[in-house]
Q: What sequence folds into this?
């Protein structure tokens, strides 16, 4: 664990990306293949199977440290991280164990089938043998959630340096449903044929939002515009007559969308399409709510298939007849894509249309109709652009419609967790319905730490009632909320549900009486 | 409302009971009615006895001040022209029959616990304290008493300090590494206390140590009163940035939050504070590194200090007071939480901003 703990320490002790990459490269140069493989797995969200519950860990940490459980829980609430809290309360180590990272993981995996007493003995042994950083990492291996300041992107850069291979190749190799048990370092990163895994997707190309004036993009002739849909970005693969669907979050969702998976098996051999999985019926898109019913389901009933039908709105073609065509121009790729869609003639495969436009003004006019079409705005892509990997500026841009906004009154406040446990950071908002306030949204992001502090002081002085961590407060503060969409909802008292509500700004200039009314919100319903 | 046999509500009765005790909390500070003396008052009073020179304990606007001899220059530096009487550690002072004695608290230079005795009843007001000897503050001395008033800044079992030598080693290593990369190292620390500990304990053979104005001013006051501080260089505006190359700068946190750091071009930032024990606190500061160094007692020291007083009654103030007093109750103490205006260790201290 020493090498891995050193890597962790180095990454902890810098705020600079380059330092972190250097630390990783150093680690990759020194560590053995199995430690490297596990490190890659951990930083790409592949964690070992959980073999011990956190309630046992809490109990045992309390026992070994002599800290009573209530005091342990209080400490946990302040620290905000269980693995860390445990590592901080335990007494200093009394022995040494020089096992490396992958050995410790094997040690933890080995506890799966054993009795509780045996598990406890094993965990106590580890706690007694590891120093504070190592313990923290050991606990993290058990509890998961390896967020220690190394993103997958950063790791890709380090591996690229370590192996002297381009980052996009590394990114591609790291994709797919491999685990440290199903592959090894050599096979994953060095073997000549990447395609030994037929399910392996390509890294997604992601766009930034347009920052400047739209005219700054230059000659409109060099660009195509497509509607931007509010579904799930996905990659659909057909290789060796088998189909796979990957979401942008690198999750395999083939079983969640069987109608798309069925369609995909009929695609030409060696086809990879980038598109949007979209609720869709009678030639027009459904709201995101329809799709929401499907998310996370492994088994989909016939009833649900009927209630919430989906299609693949095809944007781009990445692989054609088994050949990686990401370096061809978007124009060429789209031609081939159109051909495939045309040939297949399948109701669940729809080609995302290129919107014709003469100049930016006409496109801006058209953008105003996005909402009534169920779209979020436009995707603008350079016709000559290759398909890059990751979030890149220049060739692709999102040009979304401005969000809806509404002025609302804060009614409830809740404390944050961890580093923000001393501040009120989560709020519930209300609008007027006649002379009463009705709650309609929860929002938290969008304020500065200074504002949170000010609001916390307000909450403390203006609490009416307390319900656990939630306080109801005098209806005085007004905030402008922004949100992307609005739906009717029977589950909410207000009768509406918002999509992506967030705090835009604090309206210090407005008294509560000038906040918006429920009718204002309902007027926005589609 | 329930009333006692004298017609007082239970709250009034308790207040009355409290007032009759040797020390009470009267909303202005810790009050000794028999002597008409306040300890560390936060509102203007006639007679103030001060535990130490931090701004939450030594405030402006009192009729007169009594503090340790070593604190006099610090109070003068902080408060300007005020009436101050210095007293030696261990020297008793009688006020209307009440005996006041100052004992070292080990917190910062000149810091004291104040023992108050009257007719066989003894209290100790500890102010802020730590048990480990930092080499410049007068080392903590346990004082036996019946009632002990304690801080609880780090009154949680997750706050346990590594030996300070280890922290200085880490600072030196970090400094050398930055130096090798041609970078300036900046460490933020309190202008009174931690700044001097760092100055005295870092390896001056590595390079030059610079100080921000607020720290320099405190150092000047300390040197003038005879504290043998090692040499430092004031980081003034007219120094060329090249002068700082490979050096280490000690600054207050407010200086680092301002534009002041711009002149150092390429630098790395470290924060010296007990709060750095927890990763979340560290990451939120956007600093490169946190050094867990505090002038306050850690969890073990708090418990140890309380045991050493042999007191049975404990008042717990600033910090995790609710949690810590609950813990003390479980240990068999008669512990209560009391609200004061003391602040414990701050990461965003505003106290030092006033000093140029
Ligand atoms: Zn202090
Ligand atoms: Zn204090």
A:
């Amino acid at each position: 664990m020493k090498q891995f703990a050193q890597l962790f320490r180095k990454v902890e002790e810098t705020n600079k990306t380059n330092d972190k990459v250097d630390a990783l490269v150093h680690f990759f140069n020194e560590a053995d293949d199995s430690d490297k493989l596990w490190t890659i797995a951990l930083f790409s969200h592949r964690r070992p199977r959980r073999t011990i519950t956190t309630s046992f860990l809490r109990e045992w940490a309390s026992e070994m440290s002599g800290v009573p459980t209530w005091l342990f829980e209080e400490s946990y609430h302040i620290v905000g991280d269980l693995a860390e809290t445990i590592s901080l309360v335990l007494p200093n180590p009394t022995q040494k164990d020089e096992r490396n990272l992958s050995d410790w993981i094997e040690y933890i995996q080995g506890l799966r089938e054993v009795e509780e007493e045996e598990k406890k003995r094993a965990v106590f042994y580890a706690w007694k043998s590891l120093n504070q950083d190592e313990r923290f990492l050991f606990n993290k291996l058990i509890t998961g959630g390896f967020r220690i300041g190394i993103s997958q992107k950063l790791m890709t850069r380090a591996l690229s340096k370590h192996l002297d291979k381009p980052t996009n190749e590394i990114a591609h190799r790291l994709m797919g449903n491999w685990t440290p048990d199903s592959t090894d370092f050599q096979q994953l990163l060095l073997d000549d044929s990447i395609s030994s895994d037929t399910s392996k997707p390509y890294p997604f190309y992601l766009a930034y939002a347009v920052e400047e004036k739209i005219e700054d993009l230059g000659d409109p002739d060099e660009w195509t515009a497509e509607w931007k849909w509010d579904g799930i970005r996905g990659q659909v693969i057909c290789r060796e007559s088998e189909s796979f669907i990957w979401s942008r979050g690198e999750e395999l969702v083939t079983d969640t969308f069987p109608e798309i998976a069925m369609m995909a098996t009929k695609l030409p051999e060696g086809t990879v399409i980038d598109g949007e999985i979209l609720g869709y019926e009678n030639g027009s898109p459904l709201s995101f709510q329809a799709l929401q019913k499907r998310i996370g389901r492994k088994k989909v009933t016939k009833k649900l298939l009927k209630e919430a039908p989906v299609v693949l709105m095809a944007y781009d073609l990445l692989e054609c007849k088994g050949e990686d065509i990401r370096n061809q121009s978007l124009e060429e790729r789209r031609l081939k894509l159109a051909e495939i869609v045309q040939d297949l003639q399948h109701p669940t495969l729809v080609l995302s249309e290129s919107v014709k436009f003469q100049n930016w003004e006409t496109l801006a006019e058209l953008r105003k109709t996005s909402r009534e079409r169920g779209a979020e705005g436009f995707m603008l892509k350079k016709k000559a652009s290759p398909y890059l990997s990751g979030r890149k500026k220049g060739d692709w841009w999102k040009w979304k419609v401005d969000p809806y906004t509404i002025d609302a009154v804060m009614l409830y406040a809740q404390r944050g967790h961890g580093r923000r446990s001393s501040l009120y950071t989560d709020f519930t908002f209300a609008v007027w319905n006649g002379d009463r306030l009705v709650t309609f949204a929860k929002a938290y992001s969008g304020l500065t730490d200074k504002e949170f502090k000010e609001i916390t002081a307000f909450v403390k002085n203006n609490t009416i009632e307390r319900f656990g961590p939630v306080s109801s407060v005098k209806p005085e503060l007004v905030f402008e909320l922004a949100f992307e969409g609005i739906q009717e909802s029977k589950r909410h008292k207000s009768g509406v549900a918002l999509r992506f509500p967030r705090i835009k700004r604090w309206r210090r200039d407005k008294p509560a009486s000038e906040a918006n009314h429920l009718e204002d919100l309902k007027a926005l319903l589609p | 409302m329930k009333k006692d046999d004298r017609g007082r509500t239970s709250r009034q009765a308790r207040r009355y009971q409290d007032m009759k005790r040797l020390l009470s909390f009267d909303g202005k500070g810790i009050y000794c009615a028999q002597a008409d003396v306040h300890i560390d008052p936060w509102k203007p009073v006639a007679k103030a006895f001060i535990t130490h020179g931090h701004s939450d304990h030594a405030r402006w606007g009192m009729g007169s001040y009594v503090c340790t001899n070593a604190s006099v220059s610090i109070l003068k530096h902080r408060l300007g022209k005020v009436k101050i009487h210095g007293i030696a550690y261990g020297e008793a002072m009688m006020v209307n029959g009440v005996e006041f004695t100052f004992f070292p608290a080990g917190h910062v230079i000149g810091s004291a616990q104040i023992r108050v005795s009257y007719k066989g009843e003894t209290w100790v007001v500890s102010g802020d304290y730590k048990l480990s000897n930092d080499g410049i503050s007068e080392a903590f001395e346990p004082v036996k008493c019946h009632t002990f008033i304690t801080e609880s800044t780090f009154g949680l079992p997750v706050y346990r300090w590594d030996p300070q030598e280890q922290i200085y080693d880490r600072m030196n290593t970090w400094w050398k590494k930055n130096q090798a990369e041609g970078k300036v190292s900046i460490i933020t620390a309190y202008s009174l206390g931690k700044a001097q500990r760092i100055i005295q304990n870092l390896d001056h053979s590595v390079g030059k140590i610079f100080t921000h104005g607020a720290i320099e001013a405190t150092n000047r006051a300390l040197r003038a009163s005879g504290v043998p501080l090692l040499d430092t260089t004031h980081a003034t505006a007219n120094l060329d940035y090249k002068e700082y190359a490979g050096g280490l700068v000690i600054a207050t946190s407010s200086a680092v939050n301002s534009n002041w750091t711009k002149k150092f071009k390429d630098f790395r930032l470290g924060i010296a504070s007990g709060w750095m024990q927890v990763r979340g606190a560290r990451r939120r500061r956007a600093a490169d590194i946190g050094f867990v160094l505090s002038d306050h007692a850690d969890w073990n020291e708090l418990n140890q200090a309380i045991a050493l007083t042999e007191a049975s009654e404990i008042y717990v103030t600033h910090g995790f007071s609710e949690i810590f007093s609950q813990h003390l109750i479980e240990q068999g103490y008669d512990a209560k939480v009391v609200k004061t205006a003391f602040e414990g260790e701050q990461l965003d201290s505003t106290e030092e901003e006033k000093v140029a």
